[in-house]
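Appendix C reproduces, verbatim, an entry submitted by the partner laboratory led by Prof. M.T., so that reviewers can inspect both the input and the predicted structure.
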Amino acid sequence: IGFFEVLAYLSVSLGYSLTSKSSLVALISGAFSVPTIILAHIYLKEKITNAQRIGSVIIILGIILLSLI
């Protein structure tokens, strides 16, 4: 877990340094919980609650809407 946390942090830092659209990088990095929910469902067979489902949809829609502005 620690390795992937470091990899994620380095990816976000690299994204900030390579683009002038740092607001998009911040939006995408804010969606870190969505892959966790999806992978836990796939590999650990965890049930996705309605709150997690609704939250994931809101996060993805928010990223899409804000990136269009």
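The radius of gyration is 14 Å. Additional entries are available on request from the coordinating office.
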